[in-house]
Design a protein that fits this description.
This protein is an alpha/beta fold and 199 residues long. The protein is 31% helix and 23% strand. The chain contains seven helices and seven strands. The protein has helices at 12-19, 59-65, 77-83, 100-111, 129-139, 141-151, 154-158, and strands at residues 24-29, 46-52, 71-74, 88-92, 118-125, 176-182, 191-198. Strands 3-2-1-4-5-7-6 form a seven-stranded mixed beta sheet, sandwiched between helices. Helix 5 crosses helix 6 (141-151). The longest helix has 12 residues, at 100-111. The structure holds S-adenosylmethionine (SAM). S-adenosylmethionine binds next to loops.
Length: 199
């Protein structure tokens, strides 16, 4: 299912800042329709942005949205890890669709890549979905309406959803320094961001 909350964008320079690097390349993992704001990018700090999603249907939309040469679009993680030197991997509103066991394997796979320095997770939910749903209209009406529109579709109902407590990130402490931040997205009270930085 392809969806994202299109009203929100993130300045990629924020990710460079959070990673502590001066300059780097970013892999937007599970990019969907793309949350990184292409117009605000300062390419003095960013070498390139690699967009990756498992949904090949996105190709038309993404090629239209991200015209610049410095964006690369992939639908195979293996190819990215082979061909591209990415320093930061950014998961924006993605971990809730990945089981804890799968995320552990994925982070292990990413950490083996010598170029990857930081992994940033944003929009990580820690509350039960129903709780978020009840409070969402009070916090962000636009996002509530967006969720309402897709809520009753079969694909959405079938989608597995996982919440993550901060403790769930303890398993990465062996290989990474783990730091928690305010959510980069709009739901500051209900969700958070995490930065894993290679030891
Ligand atoms: C809620 S959307 C978020 C899209 C975008 N990152 C954003 O912040 O607006 C979740 C996206 O993650 C992608 N996704 C989920 N699991 C994935 C996986 N294991 N590998 C690649 N993409 C994945 C989905 O296809 C979907 O486009």
């Amino acid at each position: 299912m392809i969806f994202n909350y299109n009203k929100y964008s993130i300045n990629p320079n924020k990710l460079i800042h959070l990673s502590g690097l001066k300059r780097g390349s970013i892999l937007d993992f599970g990019c969907g329709k793309g949350v990184l704001e292409s117009k605000k990018i300062d390419f003095k700090n960013i070498n390139k942005i690699v967009l990756y999603d498992k949904k090949k249907k996105l190709i038309k939309f993404l090629t239209k949205k991200y015209e610049k040469k410095k964006f690369k679009i992939y639908f195979s993680l293996k190819s990215i890890l082979k061909k591209e030197r990415c320093n930061i991997v950014f998961f924006s509103s993605v971990v809730q669709y990945i089981s804890k066991a799968k995320l552990k394997k994925l982070v292990q796979q990413l950490s083996k890549n010598k170029h990857i320095d930081s992994i940033i997770f944003s929009d990580v939910p820690y509350l039960p979905r129903i709780f978020e749903f009840v409070f969402l209209p009070l916090i962000n009406l636009n996002r509530f309406i967006f969720v309402l529109k897709i809520l009753f579709s079969k694909k959405y109902i079938k989608l597995n959803y996982y919440k993550y407590s901060k403790k769930d990130f303890n398993i990465f402490k062996k290989d990474f320094d783990v730091k928690f931040y305010k959510n980069l997205h709009d739901l500051k009270l209900m969700r958070y961001s995490v930065v894993l930085k290679k030891n």
